[in-house]
Amino acid sequence: MTNHWVDIKNADLVLIMGGNAAEAHPCGFKWVIEAKHHNKAKLVVVDPRFTRSAAMADYYAPIRAGSDIAFLAGVINYLIGNNKLQMEYVKNYTNAPFIVGEAYGFQDGLFTGYDEAKRSYNNASWGYELDEKGFAKVDPTLEHPRCVLQVMKRHYARYTPELVSRITGTPKDKFLKVCEMIATTSASNKAMTILYALGWTQHSQGSQMIRTAAIVQLLLGNIGIAGGGMNALRGHSNIQGLTDLGLLSNSLPGYLSLARESEQDLDTYYKTRALKPLRPNQMSYWQNYPKFFVSLQKAWWGAAATAENSWAFHYLPKIDKIYDVLQAFELMSQGKMNGYICQGFNPVGSFPNKKKIVDGLSKLKFLVIIDPLNTETAEFWKNYGEYNDVKSEDIQTTVFRFPSTCFAEEDGSLTNSGRWLQWHWKGAPPPGEARGDPEIIADIFNRIKTAYVKDGGAFPDPIVKLTWPYKIPHSPSAEELAMEYNGKALADVLAPPDPKDPKAPPKVLAKAGEQVSGFGLLRDDGSTACGCWIYAGAWTQAGNQMARRDNSDPWGIGQTLNWAWAWPANRRILYNAASSAPDGKPWDAKRKIVQWNGTAWGGADVPDIRPDANPGDADRVQPFIMTSEGVARLFAPTGMAEGPLPEHYEPFESPLANLMHPNNPKARANPAARVFKGDLESMGSAKDFPYVATSYRLTEHFHYWTKNVKTSAVLQPQQFVEIGEELAKAKGIANGEMVKVSSKRGFIKCVALVTKRIPQLDCDGRKIDTVGLPNHWGFVGVAKQGYLVNTLTPFVGDANTQTPEYKSFIVNIEKA
Amino acid sequence: MDMNRRQFFRVSGAGLAASTLVALGFSPTSALAETRHFKLARTTETRNTCPYCSVGCGIIMYSLGDRAKNVTADIIHIEGDPDHPVNRGTLCPKGAGLLDFVHSENRLKYPEIREPGSKEWKRVSWDDAMTRLTKLMKADRDANFVANNAAGQMVNRWTTTGMLCASASSNESGYITHKAMRSMGMLVFDNQARV
């Protein structure tokens, strides 16, 4: 979330799309109700299903699963066409005036630079036109035909309300009503918040769905303000934390990234990461990348990371490609992997095309399960009849199953979707011989390290030289680990010389051995160590900031700055300097966050800008300090796999052609999405599988986890699918009857729940029905056994993140 | 006189003492009507965070035992933390049922191994299981570690063993997992944020 849960109460309009907060985040959704009751806010819900969020909405519009970009692109067209932009914001705080280079183009659904054989783009032609100093050229009048606003205007003019309605199935009047409501927040004293979750991420074009919505928010001036923002509600309790800590194939802690194999030295590695400003005086904060990277290397390899060995740069692996989960199971199915460890993760339940997952695991030499509970993955080799029809004797995988503690049995912190790191305490010992995750990992690591010290082997250095300063080496404590990721001074950290008195002795900001107070103290000369730069400040010399429990809200707008600790720098609303107009005064006196007081920035939050950056300066420091432009990107010259502007593509499995590009088969589905050989063949056609399917969670369950929990099992004991009345009638299916739902990859059988809540849609003159698939059942647990829904889902992911397309695919349904 | 039901019966067993008490004007009626003490009043409170979704609701766990060395704590009740700025004491149906997660009959208690081709689990000691596993891991890394790619560039990667990490585990657990596994050159490495 750019903002946080309590801040939702400050909104004038709440748009829930690509999520269902009332059912998936019930205790956070109360802030939507708070906004309705106490701020007279309106709630708009756009969803294929009339969810319980929709039931609380002031306005609901149905949409076909997977067509969200078309809908939002239509909103952009409406806003530009009807002059409903927060123009001062757009002009000053976005790249609307930036001039795009002449080489950029878009035709027949493809941007310039497409390589069909590689299914990828070379983005060289998407850049800005630069001046002789290397700065991007801008046109403050916004009239240059190649300035971003004009390029966007042309790009989105194609998304007329008629065409949007034909693609999305949203009736035109409902679409326009939503546009109208959204447009009211272009006023500088109105805010809209957008709440989304996996309903946007789990598509082959999920990242661009989110970007389209972010563009809408920027055009309306709704980013960086109270009650605004792009708010990813997210999934698991610490999904934010594990993302922050970089536990992803190509990541390092704090959104640093592993080097590609072509980047063989530090200079090359920094070049595309420590970006220089594209406009004069901009902070381009990633310029500090070397400070964060060197401090990480010092935290991990201590004295073994030196200037001479480029801070142990080669101790880290270099990537040739991303080894995401789909790639991992593709390699497994090709027999190219031998071992796999699942820590609190149930891939047989959670990954698409269950058959491919089980086949992959069956080819491993060894599989390790670390979990507090039994899972389908732990027992993938066991025959559970139709639910898991395998022959144990043919599966030669050795499976280790290790019991771990649960939340109640450990100390530590979790980062919620509002970026708050909240400390928790152990209340009881774990059952039996269960151990904490750090203890299990330490045991594995220490044994392997001992073996490398004793016997040697392949490149032992990064293992045997890894810092391991924990008082009990086989059981590092949560406190020690938190202090390590916060970071400390290895030598005295000195302030830079004072320009007013350059000869004065420099101030000592932190003495050697002290915890650093924030990432501003990190250095690239090896004098600081920090395991995760964005978490610097979580455990300072003053102690554990994550354990703070002062819930006072002195400004009355939900800014509890002394409750727990938020990254970065305890800042609660990102880009908050944009809450003030270019003169440094708040856009809206009733919606103050941070403002310029004549000498410094301050207010109800930690300012997201250099504290002394005077807005009166020529070429003032702009509020989007992480971009090299200093402003937000409506048009993204880099960073997105499938183009600088979002474009509608159909889901890989869809009953419809892409109406935006009916004559170009290359632009039917995301042209830049990776598809493995064999997986395209396992995609169905609309002839055999005519219905749109989408999978989701229920309030009473959490994924495949709570079927082990009696209360949840009692509340929702049995698997079901939801279908609309029209489909039920057409197929002769009565409420409560057993049905079989199949895709090209397999089938499930369960009870049909016939409901008005899944409306039939009219898309381009065709009736489109949707089958709703709640996720929570499997062959292990205390609830009734059921079929894993991911038996049905396709093995393809978003082109940027590789998040699988669980939210829109096609199935058939018949009486069982 | 503050006396609960059980104490009253104990006292009345003394016969004479009881009648004396009655004679002195202490009627047993009120004592009989008094409910027993609220169980949670004698428990230990521990602050924690709900492990399910990413709202991060504050919870209070109530356990038997006072943290003394000779007592094993046992969590008997979990409820929303009213001080928490987001959930203000509320919990959803999942959070309200957390106690049944802690005490689920499907909690794993001992290390186990399923041998190739077998249809069952076998209980093993941590030490035996870890010895076996780490031998397998080291053998795989030594056999398949790629120090240089075909172009001769230094890549130092290990892609034949991978790991999925738990996004319901703590930051501290995530941090040490990342540090330890990346030091081995592991690239097949992800968590639920990917899905």
- CATH topology value of the largest domain in chain B: Phosphorylase Kinase, domain 1
**What's the oligomerization state?**
heterodimer
**Mean pLDDT value of chain A:** 98
What letter string, H or E per element, gives the SSE order of chain B? HHHEEEHHEEHEEEHE
Count of extended strands of chain A: 33
Number of strands of chain B: 9
The second-level CATH architecture of the largest domain in chain B is 2-Layer Sandwich
Q: What is the CA-atom radius of gyration of chain A, in angstroms?
A: 27 Å
Largest interface: A-B, 164 and 120 residues
Please report the distance between the alpha carbons of the first and last residues of chain B. Answer: 63 Å
Helix content of chain A: 10-25%
State which percent range the strand residues of chain A make up: 15-25%
**Which range best describes the helical content of chain B: under 10%, 10-25%, 25-40%, 40-55%, 55-70% or over 70%?**
25-40%
pLDDT < 50 runs, ≥5 residues of chain A: none
Annotate the secondary structure layout.
The complex is a heterodimer of chains A (816) and B (195).
Chain A: E1 13-17, H1 21-24, H2 26-39, E2 42-47, H3 52-55, E3 59-62, H4 68-81, H5 87-93, E4 106-107, E5 110-111, E6 114-115, E7 120-121, H6 148-157, H7 161-168, H8 172-183, E8 192-196, H9 198-201, H10 206-219, E9 230-232, H11 239-244, E10 251-252, E11 256-257, H12 266-271, H13 289-301, H14 325-333, E12 339-343, H15 347-350, H16 354-362, E13 366-371, E14 398-403, E15 412-415, E16 420-424, H17 437-455, H18 461-464, H19 478-486, E17 488-489, E18 493-494, E19 508-510, E20 528-529, E21 539-540, E22 543-544, E23 565-566, E24 594-596, E25 601-603, E26 691-696, H20 710-715, E27 720-724, H21 725-731, E28 738-743, E29 746-755, E30 761-763, E31 766-768, E32 770-774, E33 809-815
Parallel strand pairs in A: 1-2, 1-8, 2-3, 8-9, 12-13, 13-14, 26-32, 27-29
Antiparallel strand pairs in A: 4-5, 6-7, 10-11, 15-16, 16-23, 17-20, 18-19, 21-22, 24-25, 26-33, 27-32, 28-29, 28-33, 30-31
Helix pairs in contact in A: 4-7, 4-8, 4-10, 14-16
Chain B: H1 5-13, H2 16-23, H3 28-33, E1 44-49, E2 58-64, E3 74-80, H4 93-96, H5 98-102, E4 112-114, E5 122-123, H6 126-144, E6 146-148, E7 154-157, E8 161-165, H7 171-183, E9 189-191
Parallel strand pairs in B: 8-9
Antiparallel strand pairs in B: 1-2, 2-3, 4-5, 6-7
